Amino acid sequence: ATPRPISTPPAILTTPAPSATPSAAPTVPPTATASVYTWPVKGEILREHDIETLSYDATMADWRTHDGIDIACTAGTQVKAPAGGTVSDIYTDDLMGKTVVISHADGVVSVCSNLAGVPNVEIGDTVRTGDIIGSVGKSAIAESAEVSHLHLSMTRDGVSVDPLDYLPQR
Q1: By three-state DSSP, how is residue 89 classified?
Q2: Which residues is 14 bridged to in the sheet?
Q3: What is the C-alpha separation between 80 and 91, in angstroms, rounded?
Q4: Which pLDDT band, with edges at 50, 70 and 90, does 139 fall under?
Q5: Mean pLDDT, residues 92-116 taken together
């Protein structure tokens, strides 16, 4: 399933109360600022984001690109929302398993895959950075040869981006 875009209401102009200064300009309310990101799980990076170079995939026994990062962690580890936003989709992908999609205010969409069972969130829920959204599972058959991990991918304005460009340095 394709992540659903979150529509934002148009800015509303407000007119200040009449004053002695006739040239007072209308003000625009502040808009959402860039999201603050956190690591959804702690662990070693097993496989980095690389959509330009083919790398060998042991599970599929072929060469392919990788649209996210795989973070090693024990099955059952709680997964945190990488940033605040709205849960825009939850689905089971044939290859990547149980997946939660979060749309953020800055045009970035986080996709957490290889989750276990039923997530802790529902479509339409608002989450804050670090809220628990689910736990790591073994549902990604396309990456089943790897040790237990979370697959995290991100897009910005529909284009794949490296999650390491958004997550804080360790």
Answers
A1: strand
A2: 27
A3: 17
A4: very high
A5: 96
- Least Cα distance to 143 among 130, 152, 133 occurs for 152
Structure tokens, 165: 């460009």
For 45, residues 6+ apart whose C-beta sits below 8 A from its C-beta are 69, 70, 71, 72, 164
Q: How far apart are CA 101 and CA 120, in angstroms?
A: 13
**Three-point CA angle 132, 163, 5, nearest 5°:** 70
Dihedral-angle region of residue 139 (phi above 0 means left; psi in -120 to 50 means alpha; beta otherwise): alpha
- The token duo for 96 is 């990547």
State residue 132's pLDDT score: 98
- Report the predicted TM-score, pTM, of the whole model to 2 decimal places: 0.78
Q: What is the DSSP letter of 138?
A: S
Instruction: Look at residue 170 in the predicted model and tell me its pLDDT.
Output: 81
CA geometry: angle at 161 spanning 168 and 131, to 5°? 50
**Residues in contact with 149: Cβ distance below 8 Å, sequence separation at least 6, in sequence order:** 43, 46, 70, 71, 72, 73, 114, 136, 143
% of the chain residues with pLDDT over 70: 80
